[in-house]
Design goal:
The complex is a heterodimer. By secondary structure, chain A is an alpha/beta fold. In chain A, about 30% of the residues lie in helices and about 20% in strands. The relative contact order of chain A is 0.28. Chain B is built from 6 helices and 11 strands. In chain B, helix 3 crosses helix 4. Classes of the chains: A alpha/beta, B alpha/beta. At the A-B interface, helix 3 of A face helix 4, strand 7 and strand 8 of B.
């Protein structure tokens, strides 16, 4: 089993909701991938250091303001290996 | 232009929620039901667009048992024109709701769907987004202000760090946040008129959509009762309590 967690980030770090989601994901599997929907080195570095995360996936390229319409295809691409997808219920 | 407003019948927000004796669900027998507050805001917004001459017809949809017709009538009294009732005795999950709404949107050729951001009973906050994905339409979620001009909409969204303004093209989905407007009270003449408006009833089995529930509720529990604090006389007593009674040190 593997879990994909969709991270909510602000060009610096992921928000607290995402951290809670990662903790919840640990109850399902030890194999947790974190999908970061922005290509910022600082965020990615911070994500690598989060306890419990085994893999960080980052979306490269322009995602136009993080609109749902543009992010959804990227997420669909990333879920191929996952058995569970988790995200926090934010206004993201 | 036609606008579709889906409404959900939920336990009234003023009612104290009780869990049934089998702990399998929330008690709904003999409990006051009313329209989900976010949906009321959606109806109000649609009526305002109609009053401004930007919308011709407001179609109200609700899914559920016989009782939801009362909720549709409430929406009529506020200004809805025509109703569709999808009959399902059981609870309908968000994905099924979204699929049903998709078919209605296509059949009725509506250009705009305004709906509550979430229902206060299950707090799913999913149906609007799912509907947008199924239709491949743009979405403006958590809207706190809408400006419609021609075939474009400016939507101000309430997000964590402040406000975000989006410009989206019709057709689209809008989900309403609390600050979008203050729903009106229906006047008596309008309540009387609402009784005459038409509601089409369709059995969920006749929609051709697989409506089987995929989630199983294992148990419903009330939150643990909160115990009040108490005063202690001095530090020694405090340490004693922490050590021997609470056992934290």
């Amino acid at each position: 089993m593997s879990v994909l967690v969709i991270a909510e980030s602000n060009s610096k770090e992921v928000d607290r909701g995402t951290l809670s989601t990662i903790t919840a994901a640990q109850k399902i599997s030890d194999n947790i991938s974190l999908l970061v929907l922005e290509d910022v080195e600082e965020v990615l570095q911070n994500c690598k250091n989060i306890k419990g995360v085994t893999k960080v996936i980052s979306a490269k390229g322009e995602l136009e303001g993080g609109l749902a319409e543009n992010l959804a295809p990227v997420i669909i691409d990333a879920i191929k290996d996952a058995t569970h997808i988790l995200s926090s219920a934010g206004t993201f | 232009m036609k606008v579709l407003v889906p409404v959900k019948r939920v336990i009234d927000y003023n009612v104290k929620i009780r869990v049934n004796s089998e702990e399998s669900a929330v008690e709904t027998n003999n409990v006051k039901m009313s329209m989900n507050p976010f949906d009321e805001i959606a109806v109000e917004e649609a009526v305002r667009l109609k009053e401004a001459g930007l919308v011709d017809e407001i179609i109200i949809v609700s899914i559920g048992n016989k009782g939801v017709q009362e909720t549709i009538r409430t929406a009529f009294a506020m200004g809805g024109d025509r109703g569709i009732h999808i009959f399902n005795e059981d609870n309908t999950e968000p994905l099924v709701v979204a699929k049903i709404l998709k078919d209605i949107v296509i059949n009725e050729k509506t250009d705009l769907v305004i709906m509550g951001k979430q229902a206060i009973d299950d707090d799913a906050n999913q149906t609007g987004q799912m509907l947008a994905a199924l239709l491949d339409w743009p979405q403006g979620t958590f809207a706190s202000k809408i400006e419609l001009n021609n075939k474009e909409l400016n939507i101000i969204r309430e997000i964590d760090g402040g406000l975000e303004t989006l410009n989206i093209k019709l057709p689209c989905i809008i989900t309403t946040d609390l600050r979008l407007n203050e729903p009106r009270y229906a006047s008596l003449p309008n309540i009387m008129k609402a009784k005459k408006k038409e509601i089409i009833e369709i059995l969920i089995a006749d929609t051709g959509i697989d409506f089987k529930n995929r989630l199983e509720v294992i148990k419903v529990q009330e939150p643990p009762v909160r115990v009040g604090g108490r005063k202690v006389e001095n530090v020694d007593e405090l340490i004693n309590v922490l050590k021997n009674e609470v056992g934290v040190i």
